[in-house]
Every structure is written in structure tokens, then in C-alpha cells.
Amino acid sequence: MKMNAHFLAVAGAGSQILIPVVWVISQWRLRSVVSAMNLEKAGDVPQVAASLQTVTAQMGRELDVWLGAVGLALLGWMLFVFAITRLKYRRLWAFWFACIYGACLICVVPLGTPFGLFLVIFAWIHRQEFVSCAAPRLISVS
């Protein structure tokens, strides 16, 4: 197996962790900003407006970071797909990653569905190739 195929597959699969990690961090940051809002004096309109403006600006920044993480994860997905399709990287972990991650992506309607369907269908069609690479080799003694 070529080393660059292994590197592309591992890098592509590993980059998928960016999406949930960045989402959790973004949620934590947004909750801290919202909890820091001071709305005790609802009659003080400039203070309420300033608090809302701070929260809105933070939401925009977090959305930008999250979209960047999704873009990098999409690039990683393409690296993984290139490794298993064109470079014919056939390891058992790649098969299970394609099946499980593809099933998760199918649930992300409408954007993730075609990407997930591709992974699941490709893994299912080529399952024998993935499994045959994982089978232990028997040593014959003559």
C-alpha cells in the first residue's frame, strides 16, 4: 500500500473531527457571551442595545469559524475519498469509517446527504476488497 494513500486517508478522516469540536467550542463561547449580558435594567435602552450588539458580533464570528471548519472538513472528505477511490486504499478501518461517517452524513439533510450516500454506497459495493485486505494471511509450511 502506498504511504501517501495512507496519509491522505488518515488526514481526511482525522479532519472530520473539526466539525463537532468547533461546534462545541462555539456553543460554549456563545453561552458565555449570552450569560454575560446585563439585562437587569431593561429601561436602559443603550445598554441593552450594546449587549445585543456584542452577542450578535460574537455569533457572526462563531459562524465564520464554524464555516471554516466545515470547509476544511470538506477538503478532508475529498482527500479520504481520493485515497479510497483513485489510490485504492483498502483497509478495514477505512471501510468502517466510510460506513459510519457516511450514515451520519446522510442525516445532515440536505447538504451532507449526497456525501454520505456516496461513502456508504462505495463502501458497500467494494466491501469484498476492504474485507479481503483485512483477512489474516495463512503461512503454509511445506
Explain the layout of strands and helices:
Layout: H1 3-14, H2 18-35, H3 45-85, H4 92-106, H5 113-125, H6 127-134
Summed up:
This protein has helices at residues 3-14, 18-35, 45-85, 92-106, 113-125, 127-134. The protein is mainly α.
Please give a structural write-up.
The protein is an all-alpha fold and 142 residues long. The protein is 75% helix and 0% strand. The two termini are 28 Å apart.
Give the tally of structural domains.
2
Radius of gyration over alpha carbons?
Answer: 22 Å
Order of helices and strands: HHHHHH
Strand tally is: 0
Low-pLDDT runs? none
- Number of alpha- plus pi-helical segments: 6
The major sheet is characterized as:
none
Features:
single chain; 6 helices; mainly alpha
